[in-house]
Every structure is written in C-alpha cells, then in structure tokens.
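User: I'm putting together a teaching handout on how multi-component assemblies are represented. Below are the sequence lines for each component of a complex, exactly as they appear in our records. Could you produce the 3D structure of the whole assembly as structure tokens, so the students can see both representations side by side? Please keep the chain order the same as the input.
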Amino acid sequence: MQFLKPILAIVVAYLLIKLGVPFLGSLMHPGTWPVVPSAVMKMYMAFIILGTLLSYTYSEEGYNALIGPIVDVYSNPAKAAIKFGLVFVIGAFGAFVAYQYVKPTFDPPVELRSVHPAPPSSAELWGKSFQIQSLKNPLRDDKANFAKNVEEGGAIFFKNCFYCHGDKLDGKGHFAAGFNPLPANFTDVGTIAQLTESFVFWRVGTGGPGLPGEGTPWISAMPVWHTLLSEEELWKVIMFIYDYTGYAPRVTTEVK
Amino acid sequence: MKGRSMATRFITDKLGRAGLAAFGLILAAALCAPTQARAASGDVQNGAKIYNKRCWWCHGKKGAADGPAATFLVPPPRDFSMGVYKYKTSAPTTPLPRDEDLFNRITNGMPGTGMPAWNDVLSDKDRWDLVAYIKSLTDLFGKEANPPALDFGKKKMGADMVEKGKKAFQDAKCFECHGQAGKGDLTKKLKEDSGIREWPRNLTKPWTFRGGNTPEDIFSRVTNGIPNTQMNSFAAATTGNGKLSEEDRWAVVNYVMSLADDSKKVKDGVTVVKGILRDALPKDENDPAWDTAPSTAYFLVPQIIQKERFFTPTNDGLKVRAFYNAKEVAFQLEWDDRTKSMPGDPVAESIAWDTLTPDAVAVQMPIGTFTGNEKPYFGHGDTSHAVSMLYWSAGTVQAPNAAKLFDYTGSGKREEVDPKTAGFATSASYKDGTWRVMMKRTLTTANKEKVTQLEPGQYIPVAFANWDGSNGEAGSKHTLTTWYWLLLMPPTGSEVVVIPVVVFFALVGGQLAAAALMKKK
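Assistant: Of course. Below is the structure of the complete assembly, with chains in the same order as your input.
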C-alpha cells in the first residue's frame, strides 16, 4: 500500500491544478473556465513528481517501500504476466505521447490586433483637418436640442449601423456573425464607456481603413463613415450611442 | 417557452401517450392560467416606455412598421397597426395570435431577420408589458380573451412518418414553392398580401426558420399557414384537394425535419478551407470524389461597407471544398439559391421582378506569395496590396459559364488578366435550388506578380463573394465573406508513424533489459 501513496498524491495534485484552479476562476468570473496553460501545467507537474519522489525516498524504508514492489514485479518469475502487461502498457503510453508531439496540427495563424489603438494627433475628414486631442462634440453645448439630436442620431444609427452593431447596441446585429473582428459591443464597459467622444469620432469617421497597422485595418469591415455621413450626422450618432447605453463619454482634463 | 416545447418533446419520447395526456392537463393548468392573467394585466404604460426606447426604430412610432430602419430590412418589420401576425399557434379558425405567440417572438427573436431575442435585456414582466402595449396599437384584439391554442392532436415521430410525409409533400404540392428538394426553389412569383416580394423558406436550413424549428413550431406553420402570405393553412379533416389530415401534417413535419442539411450550417471556429492532396482532380463540379473532401461553410453577408451599399440579400451561405495535386488546385463552391438567374432562362425570366442579371461567385486571394504579415484590405485589396480574383458568372443562355480573372488594387480599380495565365477554367450546374461551381487553376504561374501563388502547407487568406441575379445583385450589390484561410494540407510525413513506433520499442526494450538486470541481482 505504501507504493500507492505517492501515486495518489501526484494524481490529487494534478486534479487540483487541472480542475480546482479553473473552478475557483469560474466562481470569481461566472461563465468562464480559465484552464492552466499546458506549458505551466507541465512545469508544475515536473516539480510535483520530483518533490513527491524525493520526499518518499528520503529514508531507507521509504525508498525500499517504493522500489520494492517494482523490483518484485520485474524480477519475480511468478509475476511474469503482470511484467509483460506493464512493459506493453508503458511502451504504448510512450508511443501515444510521442504521437501527440509529432502529429501535424492545423491551427490558423493568430492575428494579434489592438482594439483601441492610439489615435493620430490629427485626421483628415471631409477634406478638413481635425485635431483629435482637443476635439469636442459641438452639439453637447446645445442643451435645448439634446433630445432632438439624440433621436436624429438614433435614426442614423438604425439606417446605417445596426446591421452589425445590433438593435440592442450589443454588437450582435443580424450581419455581425459574417465579420471578423466582430462589431464592437457598445454596452460593454470596454468600448465607448472608456473612450472620449473625439476618439469615437476618429474611429467612426475614418473606419477600418483609417486604423494604424496594429489595428489590422485590412480585416475591419467598419466603413469609412465620413464618405457616407456628414460631420453633424456623425456627432449625432455618437450622442445617440452614449445616450442609449447610459454611458458618459470619457473626458480628458488638462493638467496645469 | 422554448423550454416548454423541449420538455414536451422529452415527455413524449419517454412516457408515451398516457403520460402526455396527464402532462398536457397539468401543463394547461400550470401555464395558461398565469400567462393569460399576465398578458391581460400587462402594464401598457411600461410597455409603451420600453417600446419608445427600443422598438420604434423598426416598427414605427405608432406601430405602422415605418421606423427609420424599416425600408432596409427583408423581411420588413411587423406592422402592429394591422394586427396580422405571421407566426401564430392559435386555432386556424381565428385570425388573432395568442398572447404567447407575441411573447415568444419578443423573447426568442426571429433567426435570419433584424428581430433579436430580447430575453437578455428585458425581464419577463417587461416583455409581457410590451405584449399588452403592442396589442393596444390596433383595435383588432378588442376585449377578446386570449384565443384558444390549436389542436396539436397526436404527435407522431419516426422513420415511417418521414416516408409518409414525403408523399404528403407531393399530394399538397408543397414543392411548387419549396422545391422538390425543399430548398425554396420556387416555380412561380410569390408576394405577400401587402404586395412585397416573398421567398419560400429553404427547408434544408432549419436554423433559419423564423418561427422556430421544433416539431410543434413546424406543425403550427403547416396547420395555420403564414397569414398575409401565400403559405396557406393546410388543415383539413382528411387529405385531399391540396389539404392535409392531422396525421399527414405530422408526417410533413417529420419529412421537413429529415431534410436538414447540417453541412451548410456555419460551425463555430471552422474557418479554414482544407485542400486535400489527390493525384487526379475531380473532373467536374458534380464528381463524386468531392464527397471525400472536408467542407467548410461560410456566412454570406451583404456588402454594406461602400457605395452602393446593399442591405437585402437572399443567399446566406457558401460551402467550399478543395483538392490539389502537384500542378493544380480545384475548388468546389456550393450554395443554395432559389433561382437559376441566367438572362434568357425561361423559368428565371418568369419569376424575375426586375431586370434579371446572371448569378455569380468569386474567390479572392492576395496576389503573389502571401508573406504572413499584412493582408490586403478585404474589400478588393488596396494600393500597396493587390488581390487576385477568380470570377465565375452564369452568363446568359446564349453564352453560359463565363470565367474571368481579375487583379484589384482597391474598389473599382481592376485589371483583367488572361485566364490562361493561371490555366483558370470553370464548370457549373444548377439543380434543385443549388448551384455548384468548380474552379480550377494552376498552383503557380510564370508571372508571379499577376496571380496568387499557392504553396502547400502555407496559410493563404481567402474571401468569397456571391451575386443573386434575381435579387437585383450586380456590381457592388452582392454578398461577401471577410478573410478566412485556405490551406493546401501537406501530405503527412512518415515520421508521424516512425517516431511513435521507435519510442514504443525503446521503452519495451529498456524495461526488459532492466528486468534482466534486476533478476541477476
């Protein structure tokens, strides 16, 4: 029985890392199952196996208790059947591991992409130059017409944008699944909620092709909106997406 | 509500009819009573508030289906002022839907349309309040109680019912609109009562069934028809005169479900066309050899990016396979299209509403050798990254099957290349609502700067475009895919077998040697 203890210890440790860690993660972030990366897993297991063997073979008795049964199986003629079975199983297991290493895998290349790349200092739209840093939404000052501007922005959104960005502004419009990257989800805290209106103005106005290289402009399906909408329409639709989702645009304050 | 139909199915399968009868009674008592009360007592004020934030953009401020988005949608949004509903589970004798029908549409949305499922942002109560408000937009409902549910009778599922349904499908002439293979390849012009054009459902794609695809959903459609359209009610006591008995309607449900073709459904994460090495390439697009190649299904979405933008597609998917040998690659492009659009074709001309243009399909890849860094812009490339396009058009009856090879350096900036440069040839055929096109070309070309160079083992970006000539699709008005990948699968080397075998014998030999040593001691 002494012989089974280290094996049991190793199995328990493996299960803790394989299932326990993702389980804890799923409690912290419901709906996720964050597995331990296989490279880290291998490293942990190497240490665990080594450590377990060291601690069990530290004393003479421990060493004998562990090694004794193994020597017995391999050398005792009465246990020849078990021996050949073991020899075969270990050989087959090694072959299986080797196959996992050499078999061809076909995973398409991963395209790394910066979702919100730094905007340029200025951008050219409608043949005019806009300073992105200092740009303000001119319609924000027109408090009297706020509701009217938001509603007009909504009409623009539902004529132009909702096919991809969705009726619910959740990025799941009825054509969204045909694109990669998927259209932005405005209800998510990671999109317009953390951006300034001037950034959104630049992103919408210059579209996919206006992205810098790290934003992989070649795959974005975002149209170049300044060729399709007027400047005022662009500001109105931006007001709408903030109003509908209930987020406030991020503001930059000047440090004096 | 979805849960209810699944539960119903489970009970039917497991417990049989006696159980079903008992379950039905409990179900009726448990569900009808509270839901009726909920719909009747819905807070119209709260419903109006939600409607005015979320719904009017399509359905209009007064429910007349005239919101800003309305004209960009096919099918168009429901006109609540008319009170006519397409998907209802009430008895065929009443034109009114049940409250649950409205609630279910709001809850689950309608696949393939602009109507999303609202259950993630609106609570049960909010959705019932919406039902109450939507009903108030027409005086049709009046003070009438929730109409009774249709009689589902004795549900029967099984292989014999599929055969029976196949015959019923013929008896009731379902094929006139839905096609012999069920792909909606109609033989006559169809329009809704409102005058807009309508397309029969492609029955092989149940994931696009607007009103749901459970047996009960389909039975409701066959029994009630789809009001306001040319899909009639097929309900009758006995089969005959184009109508179907209850048992035959269940048989049709079985047959329709048997038509599902999962290979045309887009699979999550499957984005690579895997080209298989084969010495003899298929001789044409219908060669049985194609069945041995893996297929990849892609969404087709309309070109909504550049002028002229296009919002109202009919074709929704493309299935691709590929083979290659030492010299050439062959693609099989397959898609369901309800019409064989080919100017001069008598059937296509008789169904066409506008000018008939030819159906077409295109395959786009970067020009030259793809280095794996920057891709060309997916819409026709850009000035610094050209793309090569293999283009096939149905042509006309006089001159069918036109193959062309183009280079693009941006939208509208194109140059025609002699197809012979890449040995580009096509063959195509249309059968039972499906186009199949084979495109063949050489892997490499003499002038490497004009055409894509294909190397086995390399991931090459690939994108597709499709035109339905009976839907006004021509030029920039077409459907497309974004960039995906083509991989000509390299042949598996011998090391895949040799290394595991060597490891096996080394381990066996090592253990036997160790055993021999232990014995000596």
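A couple of points students might notice: The longest strand of chain A covers residues 122-125. The beta strands of chain A are 122-125, 128-131.
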